[in-house]
Write a structure and sequence with these properties.
By secondary structure, this protein is mainly alpha-helical. The protein contains 9 helices and no strands.
């Protein structure tokens, strides 16, 4: 049972309503995470802006790998549900999605993918990634891509913890 009730359309404030409309247009629905964030429209708007900002520069497959790994570490079933679908849309295989828990030993991932997964796992568990991982990634990604990767993991941790704290329910 959610700890904060998601807003229905008619309950949305004048600031939240256009944000809901934009989400509805993009997703054909307004997921409960956003309906709940709608209680604080500035937070919802900032979250949507960060989500939009991470859509460029980094390969979408790498972005979804990072988001899914953070969500798996945080045991956020809500984000795993939505980002598994997103991952498949950008080309991740079922084998890759299923091998996330044991990615280091899996042949489903290449070297760069494993580095991205390591980065997401370390940052989520430790609050930062090890210097060796960042150094190895900096050999393969531009500074802009590294920043987008960091923002992706940061956003995943924000939404994961939001969902788990407030017991956000699907959809």
């Amino acid at each position: 049972m959610p700890r904060i009730q998601p807003l229905k359309d008619e309950q949305a404030s004048p600031q939240a309503r256009p944000l809901f409309d934009k989400i509805q247009s993009a997703f054909k629905m307004v997921p409960n995470i956003f309906r709940t964030m709608g209680h604080a429209p500035d937070v919802l708007q900032a979250t949507l802006a960060l989500n939009q900002a991470i859509q460029g520069d980094l390969d979408p497959k790498l972005r979804e790998l990072a988001y899914l790994k953070a969500s798996q570490v945080n045991q956020c079933k809500y984000c795993q549900h939505y980002h598994t679908g997103a991952a498949r849309k950008v080309g991740l295989s079922d084998a890759q999605v299923q091998a996330l828990g044991d990615y280091e030993q899996s042949s489903a991932f290449g070297e760069l993918e494993k580095l991205v997964l390591r980065f997401a796992e370390q940052w989520t568990r430790q609050g930062k990634a090890d210097a060796e991982v960042v150094s190895a990634l900096s050999q393969k990604l531009s500074p802009s891509q590294l920043i987008v990767l960091a923002a992706t993991v940061g956003l995943a941790n924000w939404t994961n913890r939001f969902n788990e704290t407030f017991d956000i329910q699907l959809p």
